[in-house]
Design brief:
By secondary structure, the protein is an all-beta fold. The protein folds into 6 domains: about 140 residues, no CATH class; about 40 residues, no CATH class; about 45 residues, no CATH class; about 45 residues, no CATH class; about 45 residues, no CATH class; about 140 residues, Immunoglobulin-like, CATH 2.60.40. It contains no helices and 42 strands. The strands form 15 sheets. It has a 5-stranded mixed β-sheet, with no helix packed on it. A hairpin with a 2-residue loop joins strand 21 and strand 22.
């Protein structure tokens, strides 16, 4: 109970059963119901309940609206407690209208101290500290007491207890009490008076029955007292069953008790007055025939067979019957493979790094050995020397200037090679020339004044651009006068070939006309000053201008009345 309650004011109002109470000074009250023996709630709900009603005053110094909380723990025998809800009391200055309830109760013996039928008024203290009134319409169910007399023989049992008589002449007497429960769930007391007769006042019968029968409810052999005749001891013998069940398994072609088909067979048997049944559960095993397919590798054997084929063998199976096994044996050959392989120096193939022939043993996909012959050639690293001459503006592997370069490259076998490149880059030339033409002359087919560009090719095969500025002279210009009255035929310069052009010195002239006369070769500078003159014969003319300065020179070859002209670039 709450510490704000005054324990000295505790007053018990009513209880449902006899009780004992202990109170300590820590506001703890213990209520003991000895031998309360409540019936199960499913049998009699009302009688399965117990209660106690009390009232107590708060301590005088408690203020209004103070809250006091109490709780109870209910123990049944040695079980864990059942904790109730908390009871809350609030100190109030006045009470509201009391709560009034009415219930109908049927109880065994008494209810909250009331032992007679009637209407009862009980007053309780509600959680707010005010009174609560309950009216109970009570019907008290009566307990019953019954007297029973029982006569037993010496050594006979009653309600699970065996009673004996040690007196040789007179009966022995016992008294016992049984507590029962009525249909209303109330207690009913049965007083039993037991008479046990002396041992000699017993008769004995010997009874024999067949298995499966019963005598006075007994189905097993033994000695018991008759439940039909007083003090009669029955010695019962139950004969063993003559039923028989046989489980039998035989092979196909055999028989048992005249049966050769799987099934259950029954027949009636008799031994004296007892009857029984013999049951035969027969299983006939069929002949077993199986087919087995086995693969082995060449050189192995299976059950002494080492050749591909079909083999039939007979066995005794685990159940003792004949069994045929067809073996289909497949002998797998050993595979042989030859690999010819080239690898680059510095690499390996399955651990091999040198040229040679290697034989390896593998397990093939079918699980048999596989022989692999590897012919391995290791390609050595090549050292390549390249000499290249290119024209200005060319790009060789990123190199554009003359020089010697070393780099790695992949050869036709896919291996790395070391390349030493000696690169010569020839320049492209751009030259200019002024040409003055007399009336009737042309320059490379050009007869009009103007600027003309020609694309030439050097001996190294590079481009050279030559720009010609042509001006026309009057026929009375000194350069156009001749010392003879003969007509001069100017041949197109395409008939005169200069090789090489440009040139560094030695030069060849080739005239593509049939000429057998002697002629005069004259070489002029770009300013028309003569720098070389020589007599020539035939259509192939050789001369050397290596001593001349670099520049453009005019070539003039005159055979009687024919003049061949061209130009050459000295570098």
């Amino acid at each position: 109970m709450d510490s704000n309650l005054d324990i000295e004011t505790l007053e018990i109002l009513s209880v449902s059963h006899e009780y004992r109470a202990n109170i300590d000074f820590k506001n703890k009250m213990t209520i003991l119901f000895d031998n309360i023996l409540l019936p199960d709630s499913t049998t009699n709900l009302a009688a399965s309940q117990g209660m106690i009603s009390y009232r107590i005053k708060p301590k005088k110094e408690i203020d209004y609206e103070s809250c006091m909380i109490s709780e109870a723990n209910i123990y049944f025998d040695r079980n864990a407690p059942i904790n109730t809800n908390n009871a809350v009391a609030i100190m109030r200055a006045h009470c509201e209208t009391p709560i009034i309830t009415e219930i109908d109760i049927e109880a065994c013996g008494s209810f909250w101290g009331h032992r007679d039928d009637g209407r009862y008024r009980d007053v309780f203290n509600a959680v707010d500290g005010c009174d609560s009134i309950r009216f109970v319409n009570l019907k008290v169910l009566q307990d019953y007491e019954v007297q029973e007399n029982v006569v037993l023989c010496d050594g006979e049992a009653y309600n699970g207890l065996t009673y004996y008589n040690s007196d040789d002449w007179d009966s022995a007497f016992y008294a016992t009490t049984k507590r029962l429960q009525t249909v209303e769930g109330c207690d009913s007391i049965v007083s039993v008076a037991i008479e046990v007769r002396p041992y000699w006042d017993i008769s004995r019968k010997y009874i024999t029955i067949c298995h499966g029968e019963s005598y006075q409810g007994q189905t097993t052999s033994g000695i018991f007292f008759s439940n039909e005749e007083s003090c009669t001891e029955i010695s019962l013998t139950v004969l063993p069953s003559i039923d028989e069940e046989i489980d039998m398994t035989i092979c196909a072609g055999e028989s048992f008790l005249g049966h050769n088909i799987t099934g259950s067979y029954t027949e009636s048997v008799q031994d004296g007055e007892c009857e029984g049944t013999k049951t035969l559960n027969l299983t006939v095993l069929e002949a077993i025939s199986s087919e087995q397919m086995v693969d082995i590798c060449m050189g192995e054997s299976y059950e002494s067979y080492d050749q591909s084929g079909r083999y039939v063998d007979s066995y005794i199976s685990i159940d003792g019957c004949d069994s045929n096994r067809v073996l289909i044996l497949n002998v797998l050959p050993i595979s042989y493979e030859i690999i010819n392989l080239e690898i680059c120096a510095g690499t390996t193939y399955e651990g091999y790094a040198e040229s040679g022939t290697y034989e390896d043993l593998y397990s093939a996909q079918n699980g048999c050995d596989s022989i692999r012959l590897l012919n391995l050639e290791v390609l050595q690293t090549n050292e390549v020397f390249l000499h290249l001459e290119v024209c200005e503006g060319s790009n060789i592997g990123g190199y554009t200037d003359s020089g010697t370069y070393n780099y790695g490259a992949i050869d036709e076998n896919g291996c790395e090679s070391i390349v030493e490149l000696e690169l010569i880059v020839h320049p492209n030339y751009s030259t200019q020339e002024e040409i003055r033409l007399c009336p009737g002359e042309d320059y490379n087919g050009h007869t009009e004044e103007g600027e003309y560009q020609e694309l030439l090719t050097t001996t190294e095969g590079c481009d050279s651009i030559h720009t010609v500025f042509i001006s026309l002279l009057n026929e009375d210009h000194i350069a156009c006068m001749t010392s003879s009255n003969e007509e001069i035929i100017h041949v197109n310069s395409e008939a005169l070939i200069v090789m090489p052009n440009p040139t560094a010195g030695p030069t060849k002239l080739e005239i593509r006309k049939a000429i057998n006369d002697e002629g005069t070769l004259k070489i002029y500078s770009i300013e028309k000053s003569k720098v070389f003159e020589s007599k020539v014969m035939g259509t192939e003319i050789f001369f050397d201008i290596s001593e001349m300065e670099a520049g453009i020179y005019l070539i003039n070859i005159q055979y009687q009345n024919r003049v061949f002209t061209s130009k050459v670039l000295k570098i």
